[in-house]
Write a structure and sequence with these properties.
Distance between the termini: 10 Å
Helix content: 10-25%
Order of helices and strands: EEEHEEEHEEEHHEHEHEHEHEHEHEHE
Largest sheet: 7 strands, mixed
Structural class: alpha/beta
Number of strands: 17
Number of domains: 2
Length: 339
């Protein structure tokens, strides 16, 4: 195995990706090297490639929804071994010593290493991470489809666990896209009565196939008004402004609006709209390694998988353009063809 890693990188913001080779250096004692078989594409990859968040470093190898096989392991690696099929997501490491890590909230570690921030990610033949963040893939899961679970999937699964969502709850999912289509599947199998809240009536039939029992047009104020006071939990997966007073009004007493979509504009909230019904608004990042493993087991048990389209890694620019255009249904996965 060559020490050089072949990849596709952006050399500057907004530029097409091009072949790029780099030397990763010696493998640290607590890290594993993964031969990438598949890597999903996430909107966060687009944001990083375009430096929308202001901390991209070029050349930039994006890709953080990775599935592959461990081909090298440091001397201090535990629980995983050579030949294991694993996945990794947004995080490649955490300090393991802070209060957050010690209580199992590794995803909240202030010193967490992010897979494509100041390091190279999964649009490559190989990638590295700390062994804690290399999660074994259950044999029942298709490795072609599993990559998006390690970012989009865990992003929507984590709050279901963290917030104690009950199978008797009535829940709404705002946005039936890359995140929302997985949230519908999770919440349906969790036992909830699921409402798809979407601006696209064309997605209604697919939302029902994914697990929704009801569909509401988010641009129709009359439909939103009919939900008033009825939902125990609303998960917002979108990054656009909504009719937030109507959304909050749809919450039942003690209901919660939870954000996993990064809305850039401030959300206006009247204090009394929360106080009277003891309602709340919250947000969360991805999940801990333990929660990722739980999600994978849940997917294996209930036959849950992202809806995907595939492209060879050598056509990564074409795949990125399809994601930018909004035509992806519902996640894009790159298949490594640069071995």
């Amino acid at each position: 195995m060559s020490a050089t890693i072949k990849a596709y990188a952006a050399l500057a913001p907004g530029k097409p990706l091009q072949p790029f080779d780099y030397e990763p250096g010696p493998l640290p004692d607590e890290q594993v090297e993964i031969q990438v078989s598949h890597c999903g594409i996430c909107h966060s990859d687009l944001s990083m490639l375009n430096n929308e968040w202001g901390h991209s470093v070029y050349p930039l190898v994006a890709g953080h929804e990775i599935v592959g096989t461990i081909v090298a392991a440091g001397s201090q690696v535990k629980t995983v071994k050579l030949g294991d099929r694993v996945g990794m997501g947004w995080f490649a490491g955490s300090c393991l010593a802070c209060p957050q890590c010690l209580r199992g909230d590794h995803n909240l570690c202030s010193h967490a290493e992010q897979t494509i921030v100041s390091r190279h990610g999964g649009f490559a033949e190989r990638v590295r991470c700390h062994w804690v963040w290399a999660t074994p893939l259950p044999k029942q899961l298709d490795p072609v489809k599993a990559g998006p679970l390690f970012c989009g999937g865990i992003t929507v699964f984590n709050p279901i666990v963290q917030l104690g969502i009950q199978p008797t709850d009535r829940v709404g999912v705002i946005g039936i896209g890359g995140l929302g289509h997985m949230a519908l599947q999770f919440l349906n199998k969790w036992g909830c009565d699921v409402y798809a809240i979407t601006s696209s009536d064309s997605k209604r039939d697919e939302a029902f196939r994914m697990g929704a029992r009801h569909a509401v047009n988010s641009r129709d104020s009359a439909q939103l008004q009919k939900l008033a006071g009825s939902l125990d939990f609303i998960l917002s997966t979108v990054n656009v402004t909504m009719d937030w007073p109507a959304i909050i009004g749809a919450l039942a007493p003690k209901g919660r609006l939870h954000l996993v979509g990064a809305v850039l504009e401030p959300i206006p909230v009247a204090a009394f709209s929360l106080i009277g019904g003891q309602k709340s608004i919250s947000g969360s990042p991805l999940g801990s390694p333990a929660t990722v493993a739980t999600m994978l087991e849940f997917c294996a048990r209930h036959d849950i998988a992202p809806w995907i389209e595939t492209f060879p890694l050598s056509r990564v620019n074409e795949a990125l353009e399809r994601l930018r255009s909004g035509k992806a249904r519902y996640r894009i996965v790159l298949e490594n063809d640069i071995h």
